[in-house]
Amino acid sequence: MTPLSKFKFKMIDRNKTVDPVIARRTKLACAIEEQKHVLAAHKAGTSYTVERHKWVHNELGEKVMVQHQKPVRRWFFAQDGGYYLQVRYGARVISVDGKNNAIFVETLEQLGPIYDTLVEVTKSGALDEVIERALSRKPKYKPGAAKTAELHQLSKN
Question: To pair with 94 at 20 to 30 A between CA atoms, which of 5, 50, 57, 134?
Answer without folding.
Answer: 50
